[in-house]
Amino acid sequence: MASNLIVISTAFQNAQVIPEEFAGEGRDVSPPLAWRGAPANTKSFALICNDPDAPNGNWVHWVLFNIPASTGSLVMASKGVGVAGDNSWSVGGYRGPMPPAGSGTHRYFFKVYALDTTLNLPAGATAQQLQQAMQGHVLSEGQLMGKYSR
């Protein structure tokens, strides 16, 4: 695999607290994200945001794929870029952190993948379906981790 992508946000630094604005108890909109370092032969990007600290295991907050290769960022409350897959609420789009009160600090990983193809997946595909479809097509990847607790 080629060099790792650098994934950043103007809303929070890696391993720092995600502002409430981007959480379920705030505006519940996606944070701005940007990435760089994709290989020249990138055909599309995919994104998965998950919380591995959820009480019942991995909880998916955002699935997005077939983001055009010319895209290097997503604005706050991003809509209309790429194809939205279903999150763990079985709806498309972003849903922010909302861990059970008293469950401690959860980690939220915003993972971006540079792919050598566009994927033949329908809107509403799950993170698991996306991960299966990406096998053998990931050129590079990177992540930004934020924390949140209630």
Spatial shape: globular
Structural class: mainly beta
CATH-defined topology = Phosphatidylethanolamine-binding Protein
Average pLDDT across residues? 96
N-to-C span = 38 Å
The total count of helices amounts to 1
What structural keywords apply?
150 residues; 6-stranded mixed β-sheet; Phosphatidylethanolamine-binding Protein; 3-stranded antiparallel β-sheet; single chain; mainly beta
Structure in words:
A hairpin with a 7-residue loop joins strand 4 and strand 5. The protein is 5% helix and 35% strand. It starts with 5 loop residues before the first strand and ends with a strand. It contains 1 helix and 9 strands, in the order E-E-E-E-E-E-E-E-H-E. The protein has a 6-stranded mixed β-sheet, covered by helices on one side. It has a 3-stranded antiparallel β-sheet with strand order 1-3-6, with no helix packed on it. The longest helix is centred in the last third of the chain and has 8 residues. The chain is mostly beta strands and 150 residues long. It has one domain: PEBP-like (Phosphatidylethanolamine-binding Protein, Alpha-Beta Complex).
